[in-house]
Queue: 3 jobs
Job 1
Amino acid sequence: MRIDSEQLAQHLKRGVRPLYTVHGEEPLLALEAGDLIRRHCQEVGFSEREVLTAESGFDWSELAAAASSLSLFATKRLLELRIPSGKPGSDGADALRRYANQLPADTVTLISLPKLDRTQLSSGWFEALDAAGIAVAANTVTLARLPAWIAGRLAQQEQQIDDETLAFLVSRVEGNLLAAHQEIQKLRLLFAPGPLDPTLVRSAVLDVARYDVFKLGEALLAGDAARFIRMLDGLRGEGAAPALVLWALAEEARALLHVARGLRAGKALPQAHARGEGVGHARGVVGGIRPTFRLA
């Protein structure tokens, strides 16, 4: 069973499962998911903890040995397996499949992985883990989801901000969720519960945004000039190569040109995208938004 990390707390209220596999590209959410599972296990009596780290040269027989060993100090234990590379290799893949097919009794297993690509997510070893337990995805919080995420975190500490201040906060932490978490924690320490004063928030929050050059097209196609300029300024401050910025924008322009040619040939916009005429963020210009293309 696959769930998002934001669903984990609600899932744990229904009871603990014998196997959790946490993976994803957002370190903060992955760390929080692991901590939540550990804390819940502690609360329900899994008081012993053993940690294995599968780095280069790891002997996968250690996993089987840990599974078969008896607890010395408690009847229930938490067994953690960390695979920093996300690539267990052939021996590890076999060991993980065998482990998933015969989980040890009185043990909750927590497997930690980084972001996995499509091939890894459809591999036999990952599907075996998924089938035997819960796969928790620590997915990136997109810009569209970020305002709700920040508002939710503030609500957890009984604080609220107006929409204009929320938009300001989003602009200061975009692309840097760990720093966003730290800024939210700062607001908890500085200010009392309740509605926050916009002026005080603006003076307290640092500009910790981190911009991805490949997201420039997203702002460009959305017509968000303020964000586009802010991203350019941020990338310049971070030392991004001008040639890379130019290449990213040229890719979006080429994508739009391909879509325009498809439309001129009589294809519907979704078909133009589906057949590969559009690439990059230009593929997202579908549905209710129909841009006007002019070809010379």
Job 2
Amino acid sequence: MRSEQRRARRHRHHDATVEAAADARAALQERLGDRRARRRRETRDEILLAAREVLLERGAADLSLREIARRAGFSPGALYKYFDSKDDVVKALADRAMGALLDVLLRVSADLPPDERAVEIGLAYLEFARHNPEDVAVITMHESVAVGPRSPEHDQLEETLLGVFRDGAAAGLFDLRAADDAATMCYGAWALALGLATLEQRQRPTTAAKLRAEQGRLLRAFVNGLKSEREPSLPATTAPPRTGHPEGS
């Protein structure tokens, strides 16, 4: 009886030891996996930092993976472990920039009326461009490159901007005469904001300050130009006002 109890204790101890060893191996593998994933993220960040410099210097058309690799301290072949092509690099840079811009635009209250929200989003974009001109440049360059499927950041940014004008149309505030007018309004607002940001960046500080003071007014003028000009209908029992001179006068 005692020998059986001793054997049972040895079996339990052996099972516990095996289980503890398996847990230790799993924990070690998890730590190693986390470490590899962290190293991969850090390497990817280094490549993107170098790519950002090259992109801003040369533009998307002249972006070279060889030059990116040289600046990041890698062989050209090593880059393909992280990115499939230079367009993939541009997309990764733009996704980050659009994510940062989206975070700023989403701070604008969705409870504002659409016309006020459009102006506030425009001002938020200008503030972002003022402090992050490189990100704006990357987003603009990205639009000229075919990069395959769009990212969630791209879709959400576009929906945030388009949504303002769709909401204004639904409320009867903006005059939509065709299905694609919301996109037309959005692109017009984007072009104005981008133009204002670019103009400000290229001026002397005193001139730039004067331009900043006028940006809100210019954005409001654009938005007011989108508003419906329909006059309220007169009641059926109301006679239209007479014009001209009375008869016989």
Job 3
Amino acid sequence: MERTDGACGTPKDIVDRIAQEVSRAVQDRSVIERLGGYGVEPLGNTPEEFAAMIAADIALWGEAVKATGVQEK
């Protein structure tokens, strides 16, 4: 997985450029192997796809936490 959605307020052209360069880097076999050594599997997704994945994870795990009854301190 790679995070290429940028920090809040980062201009879209900057986010897109970073995403483009990260996508290019994760095509490199040595980068793939090194990330794999850390248990990371690069996806090569777009910033929009990443944002959608995070939103879905928040919804999924938010419901899971609510179902446990855990309360914030």
